[in-house]
Amino acid sequence: MKKMLGEERRNELLNILKNSKEPITGTQLAKYANVSRQVIVNDMNLLKARNEPIIATSQGYLYINQDDTTALFEKKIVCIHNAEETEDELLTIVDCGVTVKNVIVEHPVYGEITASMMLSSRIDVEKFLQKVKETNATYLSVLTQGTHLHVISAPTKEQIEEAEKRLREKGYLIEE
Prior knowledge:
By secondary structure, the protein is an alpha+beta fold. The chain is built from six helices and seven strands, in the order αααβββαββαβαβ. It has helices at 6-18, 26-33, 37-49, 86-94, 122-135, 157-169; strands spanning 54-57, 60-63, 73-80, 99-107, 111-119, 147-154, 173-174. It has a five-stranded antiparallel β-sheet with strand order 5-4-6-3-7, with helices on one face. Strands 1-2 form a two-stranded antiparallel ribbon. α2 crosses α3, α4 (86-94) packs antiparallel against α5 (122-135) and α4 (86-94) packs antiparallel against α6 (157-169).
């Protein structure tokens, strides 16, 4: 396949993302465009700078169609747990039909650090945990001794309330 250049490549990548309901990895996009993964990272940053609603999740890049959002209810929650309890925390949330949109920590030097997650199912959680293991990465909550925030979303308020109830029962939820 011929190497795609500059603006033509970015337009094609944008079309691919717009037409996909699932995240697409930088590696997949690089193979398609016959360029390096770093070129894709740069392209995604350029597209984001143009206010294209692209997010980088642990599963790949995702174009957020404002019309497609089925999650009408959203809430920011504060959690605390150790690294070994991460899987249980995430599964507790997604098992209620709730999406974990991101994780947020307060860093003493950089201030608020937010990382997109977009975990909606057990499979998403499994893939996320596998990637953490494969890359030998640490969780952001390690920076804050386990304290972190999540923005969660769901089609109903009751699903969010159920997730909060289960997190509270397990001692993961911090409340005022």
